[in-house]
Amino acid sequence: xxxxxxxxxxxxxxxxxxxxGKLVQLANxxxxxxxxxxxxxxxxxxxxxxxxxxxxxxxxxRILTDVFESVISTEGIA
Length: 78
What we know:
This protein is α+β, with helices and mostly antiparallel strands. A hairpin with a 5-residue loop joins strand 2 and strand 3. Helix 1 crosses helix 2. The longest helix has 22 residues.
């Protein structure tokens, strides 16, 4: 059930380890445990338990959405 995505600089396409760290840290502060991974430290992994409920999944996705919106607004990312 693991899924991951790579975080890259929108203009250069280069791995963005700093932004990945900000996303992970903010999510963790809001109660969503994310793991950064990858040889360049720019991958975020999602590894929910197989017994996750719909409510728990929706709460995690809500937190993730809030984190993205927060980082986009403060970093000026489009």
